[in-house]
Amino acid sequence: MGKLSLLFLIIADVLILGTVVTCALEAGTYHNLRNPLYEEALRFVHSDQTNRNQYNQTYNCARFAGDFVDNAARAGYRCGYVTIGFLDASHSVVCFDTSDNGLVFIEPQNDEIVTIETGTPYLDKIVVSVSIYWADASRYDMLILPLIPLPLSIMATLQVAANSRKSAR
Q: Looking at domain 34-135, does it have CATH number 3.20.20.70?
């Protein structure tokens, strides 16, 4: 039982550490982002290659939007991930809050500038809700959460290892 417990604790430590590293890498990507000018947003939209991906069961609207947001962040632009709610479904697009022209919604599957408003049709359905998630430096708080259990887990791992050695003698 001691060796099995030790193995589970080591696996848990590795998973927690992996989460911390992933969060740190993402926090670095989303640091120092800025809202683009309208012309900068349009240039980015035309240079981004996300729209060239093929839509299928695993690469759907959510993946198009996520990849577009990540690419915009790598280019230094703050980009919103937009979830459009319909009565019977949802759809994902992206947006920029341009510093000179306000919110600009983009369909990342075809690079079209689109109008999204509740109560109006989009994709032949009435928009019921619109939610925007802004990926930016506030994601540093995600780095803190995985760090909390790490010291406790490491101490527990060391304790189980010490107990295993004592039992083996």
A: no
